[in-house]
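ugh finaly. both done.
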Amino acid sequence: MTTNLNSLAEAHRAAASPLFAGLAGDIGISFEFFPPKTDKMGETLWDSIRTLEPLGPRFVSVTYGAGGSTRERTHATVARIVQETGIPAAAHLTCVDASRDEIAEVAQAYWDAGIRHVVALRGDPPVKGESFRAHPDGYGCAADLVSGLLEIAPFEISVAANPEMHPEALSPQADLDNLKRKLDAGATRAMTQFFFEPDTFFRFRDAAAAAGITAPILPGIMPVSNFAAIQRMSAMCGTDVPRWLASLFEGLDDLPAARQLVAATTAAELCRRLYAGGVRDFHFYTLNRAELSYAICHMLGVRPAAPATEKAA
């Protein structure tokens, strides 16, 4: 009852004052990056990491290409984050085209490099349009991967969730059952695929609770920096792109600055409404750019930690 009253009070305050006024900054944030393919992309990535580091993310994660195609770059990127920043780093790991022994070797190398957090995924097939096929000596699903990783070392493990149902799932309930298997196998939390309307997450959160899922579920937030690219990604993962979103970005293809402003505003409003509904942890898909995620966090009340000398003064 207390939670409901708090949510009602927060919703009333949000409606009665400027949308982002006076937020406590009491949220947890995390960011996702992908390993750079070129030196130039590497510079952009590290500029982004350095820009976002002062916000105190609880962790950052680095993706892993289909079939382990970015294995070395993923490892190098995560290891460098561990060595050169104070941010806890998570490495993605998938079941695709790898035996259990190969996955154990990668996981052990992560552990030896000081990486204590893994994002465990079944993974997408390396050839677009093909169905997933487990390696003859590999793991057949993410739940088995979670169990296998915990036999190697006591990793913190995050897994994926899809609030609009995974495209390959037989039904929403079957998708929830699969998520519960991953969490019951020992995963710490779930992070969702991106979505664009708060009710999408709230319905999923309620359904997960009804299915007996008690682990934290972090909403995945994807600011729309390129609408055409978002449409392509959404089609692949089953995310609904509402008409109002298309309307907002119409005519902005050749106006990148205006597009950035609209992207930050729409994503921040989504986060603000999630906040009003009780959400306090957010996972941002940065696409290796800091500006949008930083602006959203700023509007949510997250500020860089004050230097020790300033605190002492």
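ok and the 2nd:
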Amino acid sequence: MTSGLIDIPCTLMRGGTSKGPFFLASDLPTDSETRAKVLLAALGSPDVRQIDGVGGADPLTSKVGIVSSSQRGDVDLDFLFAQVSVDKALVDTTPNCGNMLAAVVPFAIERGLISPSADRTTVRVLTLNTGTMADITVQTPGGQLTYVGDTRIDGVPGGHAPISIAFRDTSGSVCGALLPTGKSMDIIDGVPCTLIDNGMPVVVLPAHSLGISGYESRDALNADKALAAKLEPIRLKAGRMMGLGDVAEKPIPKMTLISPARAGGAINTRTFIPHVCHASIGVLGAVTVATACALEGSIAHEMAGRPTAGLLSIEHPSGEFTVDLDIGMTTDGPQVRKAALIRTARRLFAGAVAIPRSAWPEAGQGNRFQDGKIRMGDAA
């Protein structure tokens, strides 16, 4: 028995190029304010090192997945993504995260929410943050989940089993429209931008308009205070133009600086999330930038060689990300018919994360807790 601590079952998962603890929704508080306190305590925020929690002291490793069986007849699993700020007491459930989405089905199989159906198991997942649905296929040879394989993704060492993600109806999932301003190009502070949302609100803008090449290293861009001073005012104005309101304390929209591709891809990128340069590019960020490349009149279309659809390789600081895209034109404008990609994921450890009881005082009142622990037999 440990005094003053509560143990909550969780599984640390890597999803794509992100990682963080995954929880069953039933193991967390139902009200969002208490849940936020629990997640901050679990990850160790606010603290730049997250030394008193399991966070990785970086936006890419300070993320949380919350999973439950869905009550909808056309959906198997519900997924709530939480971005936990490293240095602020802030938990944001506004955006999607396609990387963490890749770990949802493996986690659900590990915890008994889903039973493998064949050598490949396909599960429909609803991201509660934005209402986005995706059909996710994992490898389950002989009815057993496997993480072993030869699929490699840039930003992750080694090979792993492939996880296919086919998004459904991602256009405008956060902003309400693929092009929230109704234009394929806007001018903000004299800089041409494309404000677009195909699963992730992104401001696409040419790197040269900000006085850089777009090929700088992540560290160099993070140290560029003059660049930051130019980017943030544009982001704040873009947020309002995209219908997101005051985004000063929000992780969206992402800012993606583009330049001509150098390694055979469609375009080269440097993405800020929102104030730190991404080591690669987010899943839905890549989908959205690829969509911008295929839209006539966008800031990315000419630079990418005027593609219309198909396989589009988005270059980023640690490699590339290929998106399989299909866009059609309707009387209402462009319509994304398909956005699919391959990720990998892996369980890193399973157990329980200990948090101070003060973060969730009511937990001890339930009969699922015993000696400061949730009874594992009741967790699923």
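summary for the 2nd one i guess: Residues 376-380 have pLDDT under 50 and may be disordered.
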